[in-house]
Design goal:
There is one protein chain. The protein is α/β, with parallel strands linked by helices and 371 residues long. It has 11 helices and 9 strands. The radius of gyration is 34 Å and the shape is globular.
Length: 371
């Protein structure tokens, strides 16, 4: 025998699932009761038309309403369980997010401690006049720091920035010393940094020094690269590929790129740029490709002082002159942008020098040129 009011129950269940969460509960309940009552009436008519089936007990209007309300309550309870499952999923996502925040905070704390230790060591070496010693990334042996190689003129602007300058000098000298090792570079920045121009400066220096055969530079964002067929990179042969936001590139795609860039294939250098924690996560999760990226350039610590040092070096490198009032104006400009965004700041310096050229004033920059 069918349960009393089973047709109404099914009708209400269908209606409830369709409308759950979209209307006021009281309004939904009232509509469900009315819909259920109508379905119940239709169910009774169907029973009368088919006498061979056993009829359900006849219910009064009051009993119909009561049964409909019970059905609504039961279905609501079922849907509530589903919502609880969704809520648990959301809690899992929240938990993952909190764990990632905690991991990044621990990493940051560790980096800061290492930076302080390194800065104290550098200051002591500078005071004592000792030869600065560094670790060769390929052999792991301690060697004298040395100087920026000839031909790397595009990287001179970074030489006034402590630690970053050391990373650049070490990388370039090691690449010259170990020509058979991968020349790929990883540039580590802060969240929101623009570091593509730094990658371009490496690419131009590689060509000037004869470390790559072509002056071609291709730039792509990680998400675009994930969808892209690598046949398009055949035209890049012998040049450099810069991948922006590289922490978002898929492991399989980067493996493809590494194979595609090998000397026996298209023979180009891969330069990864991105936020330090995203890249750290990527390499922690994909240790198989770590050996393809030996050289790390850390620029995530550059603050206002370092940026002004960069400006002084860049202006001098380009053959311009500027007084303290120009640099005061640049300091004010820095206050209105993301701290340490090298790409945006270098672009501003380029515009400043262009303004100077338009005035035709023998490469002497004035504060008005900064506007």
């Amino acid at each position: 025998m069918k349960k009393p009011f089973s047709n109404a129950y099914d009708a209400i269940k269908k209606l409830f699932r369709k409308m759950f969460g979209k209307k006021d509960p009281d309004e939904l309940q009232e509509e469900a009761v009315e819909e259920g009552a109508e379905e119940a009436a239709e169910g009774e008519e169907a029973v009368e038309e088919a006498p061979e089936e056993e009829q359900e007990p006849e219910l009064t209007p009051e009993e119909q309403k009561k049964a409909a309300l019970e059905a609504v309550a039961h279905i609501a309870e079922e849907e509530g369980i589903k919502k609880e499952k969704v809520s648990k999923g959301e809690l899992e996502e929240q938990k993952k997010y909190e764990e990632e925040v905690k991991r990044r905070a621990e990493r940051k704390k560790k980096r800061e401690a290492e930076d302080k230790k390194k800065e104290a060591k550098e200051a002591a070496e500078q005071r004592s006049g000792m030869v600065k010693m560094v670790v060769d990334p390929v052999t792991g042996e301690e060697i004298p720091l040395g100087q920026l190689p000839e031909g790397a003129s595009n990287l001179k602007k970074y030489m006034r920035i402590q630690t970053t300058s050391d990373d650049i000098v070490v990388a370039m000298n090691s690449i010259i010393k170990h020509p058979d090792m991968p020349k790929n570079i990883v540039i580590l920045g802060r969240n929101g940094f623009g570091t593509v121009k730094v990658g371009e400066d490496f690419a131009r220096s590689f060509y000037e020094m004869g470390l790559v055969k072509s002056d071609k530079i291709a730039k792509t964002k990680a998400k675009q690269l994930n969808k892209m067929g690598l046949e398009k990179l055949a035209a890049l042969k012998g040049g450099c590929l810069i991948i922006e936001n590289a922490g978002l590139v898929s492991f399989d795609k980067l493996v493809e790129v590494i194979q595609n860039s090998s000397p026996e294939n298209n023979d180009y250098v891969v330069i990864l740029t991105g936020e330090i924690d995203s890249l750290a996560n990527f390499f922690e999760e994909n240790e198989d490709i770590v050996d393809s990226f030996i050289y790390l350039i850390d620029i995530h610590k550059i603050k206002e002082k370092g940026m002004i040092h960069l400006a002084r070096g860049y202006v001098k490198e380009k053959g311009y002159k500027a007084d303290k009032y120009v640099y005061e104006k640049l300091k004010n400009y820095l206050k209105g942008m993301e701290e340490g965004n090298i790409d945006r700041f270098v672009q501003k310096l380029d515009e400043t020098m262009e303004n100077c050229d338009k005035r035709g004033d023998d490469k002497s920059i004035i504060p008005e040129d900064v506007n």
